[in-house]
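Good morning,

Attaching, inline, the backbone tokens for the sequence recovery test we're adding to the shared suite. The designed sequence is right after.
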């Protein structure tokens, strides 16, 4: 086996996050020395065991501090930027993190001669979006490509895996709430003839916005492929799973896997905006007005960009993975049932 001293160094910004932990482990298995940049390196010491002695190095860094960024990149032959936020807090704004932070990292990497660079963006990133999250993700992409034309951009849909903040959140909600929300349901139910009572009322319509969840293992595999294949230079990849689901479909899937009975509660966007107005005042908001605006555009692959198949990957289906980690939310001997409310 090649010793760590002879391996190439890759700097990973945001390494202690959900995707970052999986990526660090995969990179170590591929033979890279990983500088795992995070805000609290002591709290990330557990990551040292992901590789040989000295192969994974927790590294304190601040993507808004030029000296800190340069120190993290100095001597590396590749870099990955995973840093992102779902809501703004104080000076940690979308522009500061997604745009200016990405710009600083890429421009510093360019000065140091690092051309092997992967930028984590998001499916739906667009300068024309109504959501600041998506706009600043697109601005970050542009800043990175301007500094490093050979950079690779990956745009994942909702990423799922054992420590995700999506399926775990709703599965956990099942424990305490008789309802699961269906965001983006129609403002008024559709009433038609049919059903047992001669009239049929459809509260959920088409089930709200569409998503194409992608397994975290497929996402990190794509990033490693981008780092290790020169043919990926300068390209953008949309990372999406094999199936498109509505919001209601995803809630039904959670209920199916956890074996719980819950009412699917329609939440039109106008109602969600009112809820978000108050919820976003919390220190760690469950919902923000920007997230509501983001959900009003389907989060699915456009088909205009390269995808996982172009990286030699056959993406895993959510149905195959969710039971491996949502089982802890399951109730023994319960019957799966979604009540459409």
């Amino acid at each position: 086996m090649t010793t760590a001293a002879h391996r190439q160094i890759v700097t990973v910004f945001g390494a202690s996050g959900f995707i970052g932990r999986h990526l660090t482990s995969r990179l170590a298995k591929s033979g890279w020395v990983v500088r795992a940049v995070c805000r609290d390196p002591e709290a990330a010491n557990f990551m040292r065991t992901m590789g040989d002695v000295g192969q994974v190095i927790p590294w304190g860094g601040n993507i808004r501090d030029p000296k800190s960024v340069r120190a993290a990149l100095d001597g590396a032959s590749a870099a990955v930027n995973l840093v992102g936020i779902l809501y703004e807090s104080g000076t940690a704004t979308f522009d500061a993190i997604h745009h200016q932070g990405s710009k600083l990292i890429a421009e510093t990497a360019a000065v140091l001669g690092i051309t092997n660079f992967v930028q984590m963006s998001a499916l739906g990133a667009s300068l024309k979006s109504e959501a600041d999250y998506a706009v600043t993700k697109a601005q970050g992409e542009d800043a990175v490509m301007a500094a490093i034309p050979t950079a690779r951009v990956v745009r994942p849909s909702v990423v799922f895996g054992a420590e995700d903040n999506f399926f775990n959140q709703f599965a956990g909600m099942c424990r305490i709430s008789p309802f699961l929300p269906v965001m983006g349901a129609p403002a008024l139910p559709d009433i038609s003839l049919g059903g047992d009572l001669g009239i049929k009322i459809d509260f959920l319509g088409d089930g709200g916005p569409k998503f194409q969840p992608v397994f975290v293992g497929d996402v990190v595999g794509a990033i490693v492929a981008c780092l290790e294949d020169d043919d990926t230079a300068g390209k953008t990849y949309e990372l999406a799973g094999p199936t498109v689901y509505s919001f209601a479909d995803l809630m039904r899937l959670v209920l199916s896997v956890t074996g719980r009975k819950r009412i699917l509660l329609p939440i039109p966007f106008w109602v969600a905006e009112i809820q978000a107005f108050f919820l976003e005042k919390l220190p760690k908001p469950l919902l923000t007005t920007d997230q509501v605006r983001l959900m009003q555009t389907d989060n699915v692959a456009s088909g205009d960009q390269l995808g996982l198949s172009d990286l030699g990957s056959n993406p895993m289906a959510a149905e195959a993975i969710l039971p491996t980690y949502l089982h802890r939310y399951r109730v023994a001997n319960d019957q799966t049932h979604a009540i459409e409310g």
